[in-house]
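User: Before I run my own analysis I want an independent prediction to cross-check against. Here's the chain; please return only the structure tokens and, at the end, one sentence I can use as a sanity check.
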Amino acid sequence: MIKVKTLFLAAAAGVLTACATATPYQQAVKSGDSGYSQTKIENDRYTVSFAGNTLTDRETVETYLLYRAAEVTLDNGYTHFTLDDKDTEKKSRLVSTGSSLNRGYGHPFYGRFAYRYDVFRPGYGWRYGYSPYARRGLASRRSSAFGPFGYDPFWNDFNYREITKYKAHADIRLRRSDSEDAFSAREVMENLGPKLVYPEVKS
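Assistant: Structure tokens:
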């Protein structure tokens, strides 16, 4: 049992390490993943998007979008492109930042195996309330100060923080000549290329 737990913790630590960096410039494997993607609408028109993870800031997401638009332009034999419609979505949510990791509460891996109710106490903020682990004898005695069901909304120090993801998308028109509102694909790639961070090559 100890060996299995050790392996699980090692795997969890590996996942945390892998997720501890901003999204690099890469293709999204499937819908909903971080990275770039494009959809052909017409021969000279595409929808291009780039989605980042919670560590990827808005400027990076929009930079990667423009770079991908330039790549799509050159790959299709065009030299310039225009942005017909561009927007950046911001999605935020609250996550628990509980400190009682010895019992698994608030931990990104242990926490997914249990549900809990959280309550708000004026002056103290959100606090952990109930976990089925206490009923099964898996929680510490401290969390059961209010009886065998472990209901103690003010005992454990659980707080919340906001995490944000950005996704930029645009409809682009491909052109073979310059215009006042057009971007030169080659110049975009030359100017933005040094800002790109690519995925690490696994040896």
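Sanity check: Confidence is low (pLDDT under 50) at residues 2-18, 100-121, 128-152.
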